[in-house]
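Let's see one such:

===
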Amino acid sequence: MANDSFALSYAPPRDVSRSLIAEIAFVALLLMMFVGLSPFAPPPSPTGVNMAAPAPGDALRQIVFLAIFFPLLFASTLQRGWDVFRVVPFALIAMLAWCFFSVGWSGAPDVSLRRAALATIVVISTIASVDLIGGPRAFFLWRIVLAVILAVNWLSIPLIETAVHLPGEVDPGLIGDWRGLYGQKNTAGAVCVLTALLFLFSRNGRGNWIGWLAAAASLGFLLMTRSKTSMALFPVALMAGLAYKISWRDSLSRAIFLCGAVLITGIASFLLLLNWDLALRLLADPASFTGRAEIWQAILAYMHDHPLLGAGFGTVAHTGTLSPLHNYARGNWVETIADSHNGYLQILATTGGIGLFLALLAMVADPLYRFWPLEPARTGLKALLFAIFVFVLLHNFLETDFLESDNSLWFAFLVMLASLKTRDISLTLRP
């Protein structure tokens, strides 16, 4: 059988009870990240939104994550000992530690502490669960959950009114776009991309009609969401994964791949320099990038005055009147934003230049280091992981996913990191 795809079967750990706890925890995390506590809930109305106040489901959400974390930590320490914490990349630990340090200078220390603690719980829970149950089993469960969600999303369109963006919502430009069980079409679009990638890279090349059908259904739903970011990035992520799969077979092909990547980056940078004035005009126009540029301008202005430390983890967005951007923006729109629509800028604004440096080490440099070794037996899985890696990195230029506790792409990124480090990955395809 082909060895370029990861197994659907796996060798169970010796301790079945602890493995069961890990599997339950992993499925619970999947449901929290990809379904949430209030599926099909209508988006907030244009008026009456208080972003400073905790969301109604915040307390319950924290309780659920704690209920996942403590049994999983108990099972993990019994099976792995305290070695479980070694599975979390050191660079990511350093980033999380800096998030906690930022509480000391945060304008809303209670918010920073709460969000840093929750982010840490999610990171440890996700990586520990993947380490305990093994990569193949994790991806198998992940595909099952996403397949069910995909079916629910398609069935919801004719049956549930709020599965489509309706008149009267905050953004009238979204009217008619499909969102399924999610609160916003862009979230639905990102999940569709993940679903398509997981099924496209799981095929064994012979008669895998279920995988092709699931991928086609995901892409069909993606088109109906009209999520421009996800639609544009899907072919890029797919090509990146395929290029990795083809190129990582020997040193020569790897060198060609790297040269091609450098060439493309160089051409893109050259074109940007040639059109630098146009780029500056776009950023200066508040309406550019569907209003994102106005948020980015305020963040960059704030960072000009606070280059090293930032405002404190989790304080820039979804903090209402506590937002430090008040003095750097025209109007009170900063009180209503839920994120910065750029994961890198949000890290920069909340944890400063030091935090962004640590984040780039954890989220770019460390994964690239782990992708580098030639491992022919793992090429199939690592191609999928590389596709997820590229998609999430690029997605964060227009959306905010990094360190967001209940964000589906951040979860996918953590599974990718865990799979690169896990000690239990077998890529032998078995019937």
